[in-house]
Design a protein that fits this description.
Forms a cyclic heterotetrameric complex composed of two molecules of XerC and two molecules of XerD. Keywords: Cell cycle, Cell division, Chromosome partition, Cytoplasm, DNA integration, DNA recombination, DNA-binding. It holds the Pfam family Phage_integrase. By secondary structure, this protein is mainly alpha-helical. It is elongated. A three-stranded antiparallel beta sheet has the order 1-2-3, with no helix packed on it. The protein is built from 13 helices and three strands; from the N terminus they run αααααααβββαααααα. The longest helix is centred in the first third of the chain and has 20 residues.
Length: about 300
């Protein structure tokens, strides 16, 4: 089989994911990149024939990606994309077995997401001015932190998704799953101030809640740039990106409530194991407090160990 028929199978699978499972454009882009890597590898090995593909060849592919420096989670994602493709081809009657079914990637240590503490969030969210763009930015950042939105969910909001009277916002997340979220007082105030001036920027009939200076729906890249600029102007260390505000929402809420299931629902996680990473963040914070405050943990200055 040449690369063209093989890639036609990949494209058919991607169309299935887009129309039947309604995956987001970002997720489809990841699938496309991962399956392109597999097809390119098999073409280099002269093994581009789905019927003859073996688990041994797929393990070799995973090993090659590992040698190239790809992390365990990224390799696992590539193998997951391959498994999904082969299951699709089995349902289409093109294959009789799935060679990727039992292959696992090497484990990577789980990295905890960077989180802004409450003081730094307050520093970041200090109102910046009366300019319409500043009002828009304030409303966006307050809403992410108030309701735990993903960046794609934020820029995908339309005006009719927001109900300020009942303090609710309706969002569509991963897998086209919808959820209704509460909107906090500070976010409601910032949103009301933005809506007062939105018409100064928005093009006629533009449904997007957040628009650019050109009047069209704001892009994810623009949000990232505006947040990075504000964070640097406020003197925050390191690079601040929108997902850090979602992490801050989750970790601060969990620290206050201890209700993991509620945080899972608010974040829109299909699997609670994804939410459980925030319990590790909370423990990390407690450990730091212990190290700084507990008399048995503090190192006294000028006292040497006798051991």
């Amino acid at each position: 089989m040449s690369a063209e028929p093989a890639w036609a199978d990949v494209e058919a699978y991607l169309q299935h994911l887009a129309h039947e499972r309604r995956l987001s454009g970002h997720t489809l882009s990841n699938y496309r990149r991962d399956l392109r890597a597999l097809v390119d590898y098999l073409r280099e090995q002269d093994g581009l024939d789905w019927d003859r593909l073996s688990a041994h060849e797929l393990r070799a592919f995973a090993a090659r990606e590992h040698r190239r420096g790809l992390g365990g989670r990224s390799i696992q994602r590539r193998l997951s994309a391959a498994r999904g493709l082969f299951e699709f081809l089995i349902r289409q009657g093109r294959l009789t077995h799935n060679p990727a079914r039992d292959i696992r990637a090497p484990r990577s240590p789980r990295r905890l997401p960077a989180v802004l503490d409450v003081d730094r969030m307050s520093q970041l969210l200090q109102p910046a001015g009366e300019d319409p763009l500043e009002r828009r930015d304030q409303a966006m950042l307050e809403l992410i932190y108030s309701s735990g939105l993903r960046l794609a969910e934020l820029v995908g909001l339309d005006c009719n998704d927001l109900d300020l009277r009942d303090a609710l916002v309706s969002v569509t997340g991963k897998g086209n799953r919808s959820r209704v979220l509460p909107v906090g007082r500070q976010a409601r105030t910032a949103l009301a101030r933005w809506l007062e001036v939105r018409t100064e920027l928005a093009a006629p009939d533009e449904p997007a809640l957040f628009v650019s200076r050109r009047g069209s729906r704001l892009t994810p890249r623009s949000v990232q740039q505006r947040l990075d600029r504000r964070a640097r102007a406020r003197g925050l260390p390191g690079r601040v990106h929108p997902h850090m505000l979602r992490h801050a929402f989750a970790s601060h809420l969990l620290e206050s409530s201890g209700d993991l299931r509620a945080v899972q629902e608010l974040l829109g996680h299909a699997d609670i194991s994804t939410t459980q990473i925030y319990t590790h963040l909370d423990f990390q914070h407690l450990a730091e407090v212990y190290d700084q405050a507990h008399p048995r943990a503090r190192k006294r200055k000028g006292v040497r160990s006798e051991e």
